[in-house]
Amino acid sequence: MNAVEIESAVSDLAAQPFDAAEFPYAFLAAFGNKETTLKRLRTGNNNTSDVPGGVLLRNNIHIAVCDAGTVGEALRTLRDSPATTKAKAKFILATDGQTLEAEELISGETIACVFEDFPNHFGFLLPLAGISTIKEIKDNPIDVRATGRLNKLYVELLRENPDWAKEDRRSDMNHFMARLVFCFFAEDTDIFNGKGLFTQTVDQMSASDGSNTHQVLSEIFRAMNIKVAERANADPRLPNWANGFPYVNGGLFSGSTEVPRFTRMARTYLMHAGALSWREINPDIFGSMIQAVADDDERGALGMHYTSVPNILKVLNPLFLGDLRAALVDAGDNERKLLNLRKRMARIRVFDPACGSGNFLVIAYKQMREIEAEINRRRDELHMRSEIPLTNFRGIELRDFPAEIARLALIIAEFQCDVLYRGQKDALAEFLPLDAQNWIVCGNALRLDWLSVCPPAGTGVKVVADDLFGSPLNQAEIDFVNEGGETYICGNPPYIGDKKQSESQKDDMKSVFDELTSRWRSFDYICGFIFKAADYLSRTRGAASGLVSTNSVCQGMQVAEFWPLVFARGHLSFAVLSFKWANLAAHNAGVTCVIVGLTRNDIKSSASLIDGDVVREVESISPYLTAGHAIYVAGRNRPLSDVSEMLLGNFAKDGGHLLFSREESGQIEPAAHSYVRPIFGAREFIQGVQRFCLWIEDEHLTQAEKIPFVKERMRRVAEDRAKSSKPATVAWSKHPHRFVEIRSPKYTSAIIVPRVSSENRQYLPVGLLPERSVITEAFGLYDAPLWNMALIASRLHLVWIATVCGKMKTDFRYSNTLGWNTFPVPLLTEQSKADLTRCAEDILLAREAHFPATIADLYDPETMPDNLRHAHERNDEVLERIYIGRRFKNDTERLEKLFELYTKMTAADKAKPAAKATRGRKKTL
């Protein structure tokens, strides 16, 4: 369940007659618990509560229904309950059906309210559904509620008006919803004359069955597009009850005033939405949530799209807000400096090329208004009209509904700021009519010229896209009120990895990169936005950018292909290192993101590396987001360091007939046992799955073919390969006893390294296999000294792999050529090798002490055995002292040392005479 669905379920529960016996289960159901879970609790199988009337869900909540007037006492009993502690309950809740109290046990935060009001606190309880919430929603659920009410209305209207769901009418439907949002807000903030004017008028003038609701709404909308002085001559005449609405215009109510037909239920949903307190709406939160209402594919994610203010400020503060606040501190009470700062702010343009519903623009505007208000306070000009124009907050959005909501959100934010800083009277006096200009462009940002949307100089901009509110395609130029200032590009563009891009998105990427590189097909979609930002900066002055991205753009092979194109046009002025960017989805761990800040190459200044609350000033930032100059790690055929060779495993391409399970191996004739070997890939090594394979050397083929089991398996392999569409595989049908790809040499022992590993593990899985084992779907080191395993099992190697190899989805992706062969290792003395060998042995012995636990069991970060953890920590200490004589302070320091050493070693390697290349050949065991 998402947050909107939970709010609706909780509200329904509070509205029903209180049933003491049923309440705990209904409450848990409202937060998304499955019926099977509730059934077990009802029967008492899983309910370990030791409190009368209590229901305890492990790792979740302990609930007690108590006698009237004893809620406080019941909550204390829950808090002191041993069962609460043993079950690791996160919340406790007590109610008697009249009042309700709850406590979050970790923070100690509590709520207390009359029972009917507990839905107002549903945000406090969202963690029960695995949803990490934010203070704004926890304190004020209006945005989630408003989204839920409008979603129900939207769905009901489309059901009754299926033609409005078609592509040619969907924009009309979305425009209608934007009009409703404005009306709800306006009637609760005195923009309309009289509180509740809109909802009350609809309620009074429309039939309860909804049959004429569309006509009433149409007349209200028409009234707001006619100036008051011209209404007497309106044709057709306006009804008297519509004359109470002000002239709004601004394009919001221009054009067609057609409204979809309502049912009784749709009218009820409309009334319910109007009953909310829209004065308390947060335009940035509400806008982000409601954008999913109009998207069929995203409606299941309703309410999940909100980007929190702290996350947005991770971009805006280092980009320009921090500098503005520093200038405010420097100005003190100096009127001249304060005036100059205010003038500077009036010329700042903020541009989001993937603005969605405008939350970055809204937060930037509100933050700048806060600074401006402080300037006005210090200059004793509190009632002065803001000099920061909304038209300086530019955006591009692909979909029309979010684009409409973005403009509306900015309009609402402007009004709220005026009320907050200048007072209700001044805010109302200047709010209407709305400005008809469109500064949010609906179009494809990777196809539009950003300079046309947000030009560096000139008096206006030609909008080469559909106007939000129905203006002609080539709209008149929009004047910048204060031109010639700074421009800041910001936002959170679509990520979309190269394998998940649609055909049209691939075409977008081609339009950006095709003339620059042939490797663009492997780029993440967001690379198009980062590049266009860099290109914009290179052609303007006084501009900078800060964009959120998945950390994959600074990892793996695409770094060496993509970032040289960016660095030719700009350089990194700041970077926020990896952090989780979570939304309001249940059990959402969040995608790992970074923020990359760019400025022009001719602007010379220090750069800022930001890791949580720690800010480091460095000379420059590399494309891997480490301190240092631009460096690119490219794959190598041989190790850069003096380490053993690592090879990809062997591949059978046999249709599965040379492989068999442990159970199948027990049915093999004894004569075939000498040809059976254990085989390991990532799954077998990490999960402990036992599998075996037939491994027959050419010289043993004649003897092996005499065994019926072996002969039958070879027949199946030959048959399967012969059916292949690949001629090379068909040719191997003549050799059904062999693996098609054999890379391993003759060997006795093998060290295995899986190609993919979970990001949750603190160390890469690596191990020494039993003798005669075959490696497939993984990498292997053959007859390698054991100290090689100590290198791979280190924290140093993990951070190197995570950075230069990147990830597959969220898991570590290993590469021998890009990861192992490039790993910089200092020249090891014999003593160092002996110390590392002992460390590797200690790790293996620590694992063995927990037999038959699997690698997956042993390296679960929650349950990793202490002796194994200590063995790895000892390994890290020994290795890191070889590098710098002490332990590294953090991963950032580890990476910077590795890149420093890599730079030196590659430079020295280039200076060596070229070694004669050896031709690779397939080998057998």
Structural overview:
- The structure is a single chain.
- The protein has 925 residues and is an alpha/beta fold.
- The protein is globular and about 105 Å long.
- Mean pLDDT is 88; it is low at 299-305, 458-477, 584-589 and 915-925.
Q: What is this entry, summarized?
A:
The protein has 925 residues and is of the alpha/beta class.
- Beta-strand percent range: 5-15%
Structural class: alpha/beta
Q: What can be said about the biggest beta sheet?
A: 9 strands, mixed
The average pLDDT is 88
Which key terms come to mind for this protein?
925 residues; nine-stranded mixed sheet; globular; disordered C terminus
Task: Give the helix/strand layout.
Layout lengths: L2 H13 L7 H8 L4 H9 L10 E4 L3 E5 L5 H10 L1 H5 L4 E5 L3 E6 L5 E5 L7 H4 L9 H5 L2 H19 L6 H22 L8 H9 L7 H11 L40 H11 L8 H8 L18 H23 L3 H12 L2 E4 L6 H20 L14 E5 L2 H23 L1 H8 L8 E3 L7 H4 L33 E5 L11 H11 L12 H13 L4 E8 L7 H10 L2 E12 L9 E10 L6 E5 L2 E5 L28 E2 L10 E3 H4 L10 E5 L1 H6 L3 E4 L6 H4 L3 H15 L4 H5 L18 E5 L1 E2 L9 E2 L5 E2 L2 E5 L4 H6 L2 H10 L2 E2 L2 E3 L2 H5 L9 H19 L6 H4 L7 H19 L6 H21 L14
Parallel strand pairs: 2-3, 6-7, 6-9, 7-8, 9-10, 11-13, 17-22
Antiparallel strand pairs: 1-2, 3-4, 4-5, 10-12, 11-12, 13-14, 15-23, 16-18, 17-18, 19-21, 19-23, 20-25, 24-25
